[in-house]
TrEMBL record:
GO-annotated molecular function: acyltransferase activity, transferring groups other than amino-acyl groups
UniProt keyword Ligase present: no
Organism annotation: Labilithrix luteola
The protein's name in its UniProt record: Acetyltransferase, GNAT family
Xref: CDD domains: NAT_SF
Domain N-acetyltransferase residues, every copy: 127-268
Transmembrane segments: none
Keywords: Transferase
Length: 268
């Protein structure tokens, strides 16, 4: 039994690591540097960290300082914000400390997974959730911008990205907008990772609607969608102090941790 449990955890951590690499927003000018032990995305047209980041990095202790300096110089030359994800497979072991010494600021994440068949979420009657299309994408952006405290320029950029994504016939990511008493209140996405797992991405709730069950409703909508297609496993990298406790109460299990180190705009 212990061996089965260890195998399950290792398998789910692999799915979570894979999700982190797969679920990355891209634009037509995005450039991906992917090789064994390394995954990096650069998008010159975007100032945002979600388009400019290192997602996977496995380095020797000797090469890490040089590589980190090169990456920082690369993004600074473009004048963009960027982030560096330090997950379970990252190396060297003190990578986070090195990034912090460069002034990068960490956010704690919890890697979680749930068997779709075991998740049951009730929805408050005043809350509804809709799939996002071109007809209601403005509502999605409104809720997302409020939830993430985006400025108008960032919201406008998100709208353009969303419109392009929704019009793309090859897009297989699904987006959801939650309404509370008819007002856009929360947003979230569902990203296919493999035949057996899908990833909960970008969930947020506008401040005025927090604590009302909006996040739970977004989880329920995505679980229902996955169940309808027979996808058995849901994964999420949840923020440790906000979404992780909610997900745990709904049936997600904490399996591992990661940190996202962000380059502060003031240092760019």
């Amino acid at each position: 039994m212990a061996e089965d449990r260890d195998h399950f955890i290792a398998d789910m951590v692999h799915e979570l690591e894979r999700a982190a690499a797969v679920a990355n927003w891209r634009r037509p000018d995005s450039v991906v540097d992917e090789r064994p032990g390394w995954f990096q995305i650069t998008t010159p047209s975007s100032k945002g960290r979600w388009h400019n980041r290192v997602v996977e990095s496995v380095m020797t202790r000797e090469e890490a300082p040089r590589r980190i300096s090169e990456v920082i110089a690369h993004y600074r030359a473009l004048g963009v914000d960027f982030a560096w994800r330090v997950g379970p497979s990252a190396a060297p072991s003190d990578l986070g400390e090195i990034l912090a010494n460069h002034g990068m600021v960490p956010t704690e994440l919890v890697g979680m997974a749930a068997q779709v068949s075991r998740v049951s979420v009730s929805i408050e009657p005043r809350i509804t959730v809709e799939r996002v299309g071109l007809h209601n994408v403005v509502d999605y952006v409104h809720a997302s911008a409020a939830g993430w405290n985006n400025d108008p320029a960032t919201a406008a950029s998100l709208l353009a990205d969303m419109q392009r994504t929704l019009a793309d016939p090859d897009n297989d990511c699904q987006f959801f907008v939650a309404y509370c008493d008819g007002e856009p209140a929360g947003s979230g996405a569902l990203w296919p990772v493999s035949a057996r797992s899908e990833y909960f991405l970008g969930s947020s709730v506008a401040p005025k609607f927090r604590g009302l069950g909006v996040y739970r409703a977004l989880v329920a909508a995505r679980i229902t969608e996955m169940r309808s297609r027979g996808v058995p496993l849901a994964t999420i990298w949840a923020m440790q102090d906000t979404s992780a406790p909610i997900c745990q109460r709904l049936g997600f299990e904490a399996l591992c941790k990661a940190r996202i180190y962000a380059w502060p705009s003031a240092l760019a």
